[in-house]
Design a protein that fits this description.
Strands 6-5-4-3-2-1-22 form a seven-stranded mixed β-sheet. It has a seven-stranded mixed β-sheet with strand order 7-8-9-10-11-20-21, with helices on one face. It has a six-stranded parallel β-sheet with strand order 14-13-15-12-16-19, with helices on both faces. The protein has helices spanning about 40-45, 65-70, 70-75, 85-110, 120-130, 210-225, 240-250, 265-275, 285-290, 310-315, 335-340, 360-365, 395-405, 420-435; strands at about 1-5, 20, 25-30, 55-60, 80-85, 130, 140, 145-150, 160-165, 165-170, 195-200, 230-235, 260-265, 300-305, 320-325, 350, 370-375, 375-380, 385, 415, 440, 445-450. It has about 450 residues and is of the alpha/beta class. The protein has two domains: about 1-205 and about 395-450, Ribonuclease Z/Hydroxyacylglutathione hydrolase-like (Metallo-beta-lactamase, Chain A, 4-Layer Sandwich); about 210-390, Rossmann fold (3-Layer(aba) Sandwich), CATH 3.40.50. Strand 20 (about 415), helix 14 and strand 21 form a beta-alpha-beta unit. The longest helix has 24 residues, at about 85-110.
Amino acid sequence: MLKLSFHGGTQEVTGANYLLETEHTRILVDCGMFQCPRFCAAKNKEEFAYDPKTIDALFVTHAHIDHVGRVPKLARAGFTGKIYSTPPTKDFAALMLEDSLGVLEKEATREGESGAFYDMEDLKHALEMWDTVPYYETFHVGDFEVKFFNAAHILGSAMVEIKVQGKTFLFTGDLGNVPMPLLPPTDHVANVDYLTIESAYGNRVHEDRGERKEKFERAIEDTIKRGGTLMIPAFALERTQEILVDLNELIEHGRVTSVPVFLDSPLSIKATAVYRKYTSYFSDDTKKLIREGDDIFNFPLLQRTLTSDESKNINTVKGPKIILAGAGMMTGGRILHHARRYLPQKENTILFIGYAAAGSIARQIIEKASSVRIFGEEVPVRCDVRSIRGYSAHADSNDLLAFIESNRDTLKQVFVVQGDAAASLFLVQRARDYLGVNAGAPHFGDSVSF
């Protein structure tokens, strides 16, 4: 017996969770949280469709919550196997899951519920079962031979190659938008038979990276001229660090006027410390900058605001100023407090630099909503609204198609996941039409036997 089942990330971006099993061994790739308004909260609390007690191992591709958010729940439900990832991913996951627990507990209190679907003991238990393996080191779990390759999505992100019964499976996790400023390019993995590939941007193409810097510089300059506040909702991993690196370069080279910059995200501040710990995972160019003495995550007038009081004090600083705060899709975090204060004024700017899921406050603003509901209050959107797609940490439609094409001669089947229905199905059609490969977008609960 050899079977692959899909328990999340199916024609939706979040909730990645895939079960690969033989008669003797059952393993999971990722165990992510579903993230969307209302409906997903209930979905995260549902029991797993498989028995966690029978799972031998979990392989984690990277530490974003839509890939690790239900790992402690798995431990709570009786999983006693091993969890494997690269070293940075384990460190990031510990931060992300603790932060996520705080958010879930607040939501539970607000809804009058007894608690979140996992607690701190579940998280500690999961981390005790968690081992780390560097890229390119082969290891074995039951019937499976496993190896991690660099996915270039965030620091330590991995593709999982699994060999079993003479067949090679590859789970991409999320693939990076190459070239990435901090990371080396995505690895090429050869002779893949069965490919499970993400499709967050399966129907979109990113703008040129050169345009990205120009647009960022222009957004800063225009806001400074108006004496306003530039708000950047940012994801704690990779996007925040890329923005800091670009700000460092723009300020050091006198491209923009130096103004107060607030990194108003405890999670981002802690995550940046992990980046400093794992410089060996950086690209050669970034390593060279560090050897030459450039503190790439620091520059004049940058202030890190860890406490709530420090965050509130940002309001006492007159513009122009820049606020970099989580969360990227405005589903929570300190960015909501700043948005409520600064969205109504025309001199201010809100700049989006990453993916915004349907229904999120970020997507509403991007789609030109005249107002958004924040903390139960209707807040008018009168400020300048801008987006830069080039900061996405995801491969776009062309890159994804090229990745599929690189294994065109050996591929027997492609499973397109981790994108909304429109993006997934668009990439499926492109793979069929342009490459002639057998591609499809599974539905939740689908299984394929080999």
